[in-house]
Structures are given as structure tokens and as C-alpha cells.
Amino acid sequence: MSKPATDQLSGTTSPAQEQQILIAGAGLVGLTAAIALARAGFAVTLLDRGEVERVSDGLLTTALAAGTKRLFDQLQVWDAGALNPSPIMQIQVAQGAAGGQRHLGLIDWSVRDSANGQATILDNPLDNPHATPHAMGYIVENHLLRRHLLNHLQQLGVQMVGGFTVTAVAADDFGISLQASDGRQLRGALLLAADGRNSTLRDLLKIGCRHHDYHQTALVAVMAHSQPHDQVAYEYFMAGGPLALLPMHNNHSQLVWNLPTAKAEAFKALSTESADAFASLLQHHFPWLGQLSLVSAVQAYPLNLVRADRLHAPRAFLLGDAAHGIHPIAGQGFNLAVRGLNILRRELVAARQLGMAWWDQPSLMAADKQQSRQAARMIMATHQLNALFETNLLPIRLGRGLGLNLVNHLPPLKQFFMNQAMGL
Ligand SMILES: Cc1cc2nc3c(=O)[nH]c(=O)nc-3n(C[C@H](O)[C@H](O)[C@H](O)COP(=O)(O)OP(=O)(O)OC[C@H]3O[C@@H](n4cnc5c(N)ncnc54)[C@H](O)[C@@H]3O)c2cc1C
After folding, report:
1. Are residues 176 and 231 in the same domain?
2. pLDDT tens-digit series, residues 170-180
3. Are residues 48 and 156 in the same domain?
4. Which range marks the domain in which residue 294 is found?
């Protein structure tokens, strides 16, 4: 796993470089981090092995939790006109393959639950961070999200460097240097590694990491239906993996279907032979949505859990999937990353205000401690939820049904789980 030693890359730092934050990886997390830090007054360079300005990413949509919207508001990035978000007003969960009823029964969370039966619509949630957000979350198409974040980066004057595949890293007393495969070098005060779950940077920084293969693959696609979804997100927890339909605009929904890998491969192959045959696999689960049809290519994502042993190294910090790549069962990977980068931003700003060396260990260690605690809760929840529903053993099936019903009927428990799901 380890890459070659990087000691040859040391040197002194110019005054401009002394203040520079280098962000390696221009996925959704790197883009958001660049905006958050540039808005806080840091000089930022964002680099990627591909084109930074590319506009499309594999995943079709991302469910943004209400807490993420709140941070976007704070960063002046939330723009409903540009993002065209589709709100999630209700989440319904069922156990097993039961279909036919519109109300799935096991869990039924509505935005109204989060304010004692009163859904409060806020113009500016930051006026009162404890008040009920407008919706439980928002489905946003990735190409719109990416383009919108790129526009902001351009306005903020963030420097973007494409085609820069990092192959070596070296930190010293004066800064940190990156070397690309073509020999180019960049130097700054702090490196943020946002280069995804197979992070090379994590290896170069000699940060260990644990992996778990779920032997599942997520199939992602857009489905059209003849009847409206009423802004409800549906999730079936089935043996083999969960199946979710998330509300998009115009009688469309995003399918996220986690399956044992062999089955997923067979279903993906079926989708290329016959879109109708693929849609008919889903039809009986959602009869109230009318006629279902597949209107996009089906994309496949092999699922594993990746968890870095620590998030910081001298003059470096891991963000996003490079820090923790989690199971998409609750659609929380990006949301968790946004919380993490907000924690880091707060620590860096606080250190700078005190006149301290903000790139130094105390700020990074403090951010690591807080983010690791949050991530541990989320990893445990997603990992165990998946394990719980994967099994077909009768006592566990009964137990999980009771457990989730209990959650549904005990307001404090329900509130706790809702807050986790909404990223609050
Ligand atoms: C099926 C599925 C559904 C999901 N749904 C949701 C959801 O609804 N809500 C949610 O919050 N999360 C969701 N997630 C999780 C979310 O998509 C990820 O957490 C998020 O996209 C991770 O972004 P990232 O920027 O950390 O990594 P990536 O998107 O992997 O970006 C990494 C970047 O680093 C660059 N890079 C890699 N190596 C190098 C190198 N050596 N040098 C330079 N650059 C490099 C790459 O080119 C890439 O641009 C889902 C995940 C899956 C699989």
C-alpha cells in the first residue's frame, strides 16, 4: 500500500505559499471545502488528477441533508434556482419486500414530526439553528451541484490546477510540498486530502486505514412513474440490501438499489437488454406510483467501508471519502464530509483569530477528535443497519421490526434518528 518515500521534496516557503491551503481532489467534497475555506478568507488552490472544471460525475443525484443545506446557506451557496432541489417531506421505510400499500408502515417520518406536529417553514434557518428546517433533505442532480459549486469557485478566485496526479508528499517545518506524476510541484501551508476512498494521499501521508467489503453493489438509475411521489422517499430494507426511491422533479425518482454483487451484475446486464424488464423488477414494490419506466443508464457502485485510522498528519488533514467512505444505506457520505469540513474550518479560523499557526497540530488534532466522534456514530449506524437487514434469521427479523416500530412510536428516539438522518 505504501508509496515511495518523499523526503526529497523539502524546501523553504515564500510568503504567499505560507498562507496557501492545497486541496487535492476536486470531487464534491474538495469543491465544497474550497468554497468554505475561501469564504473564510484563506488562499486556496484546488487540484485534481482530472479536469477540475469537468461538469458531470458518475452518481446521478445526491440527497443533501437539512444540515448540509444550512451550511450551504451560511456559505451563500444555496440557490434554489441553480440547484433545482427536490425536497424530501416524508420518509417511509418498510421491512422486507412487502408492496402494494402506499404507507409502508415500519417507519413513517414526516417533516412535521420534527416540530411537534408543526412544520415550520423558515426563510433563513440560520436565524435559529434549532428550528425546523423546511424539508428533511433535498435531492439535487450532481451535474447541477457541481456546475454551481464551480461557478462559486471562479467568483471567489480559487486557483484550480487540473491534470495534477499527486505521487509524492513532503512536510517540513516551513510547509508541505506536492509532486505530480509529470514532475510539477506545488507548495503550501496545509494540505487537505479529498482524493476519494482509494486515497493515494492517505498512503503517502502514512495514515493507515481499515477496509470492509460488503460484497454488495449499488445500482443507481432514474425511474419515471405515471403517478406523483408527493415528495416522499421510500426505502425497503430487504435481505440482500436496501432498495430506495428518492423523489426528483416531474414524476421522476432516483433508484438506489443495494444488492449482492452477482445479482446486481445480472440486473445491470438485464437493464441494457431490456429497460422494461428491469422496470418490471421494481413495479410490484411501488404500485401507487403507476407505470414505472427506466429513463437512464444503470450505474453500478461496488460497496465497501473505508475508515482512516486518524484524520491528520503534520500539515495535512483527510476529508470526505478519503477519511471515511461509508455504506450509502442512509445517503450520508457527502453530508458527513460537509460536517467534517465545517469542523475543520471552525478550528482553522479560531486559531488564526488567536494569531496561532493555524496549520499546526493543535488545530488539526482538535478537528480530528470532533469529526472522528461524529463519523464513528454514522459508521456504526450505517454498518449495523445494513448487517441487521441483510440477515433472514427469524428472531432477528422479529427484533428489527419491533425495534424500528419502537423508534416510530417513541418521540425522543424518533427525534434522535431523524436528526441523524437530517444531519442536524
Ligand atoms: C450509490 C451511492 C449513493 C450515494 N448517495 C449519497 C447521498 O444521497 N447523499 C450523500 O451525502 N452521499 C451519498 N453518497 C456518498 C457520496 O457520493 C460520497 O461520499 C462523495 O461523493 C465523496 O466525495 P469525495 O469528493 O470525497 O470523493 P470523490 O468523489 O471520489 O473525489 C475524489 C477526487 O480526487 C481525485 N483524485 C484521486 N486521486 C488523486 C490523486 N492522486 N491526485 C489528484 N487527484 C486525485 C479524483 O479525480 C476525484 O475528482 C453515495 C455514494 C454511493 C456509492
Report:
1. no
2. 999 999 999 99
3. yes
4. 212-302
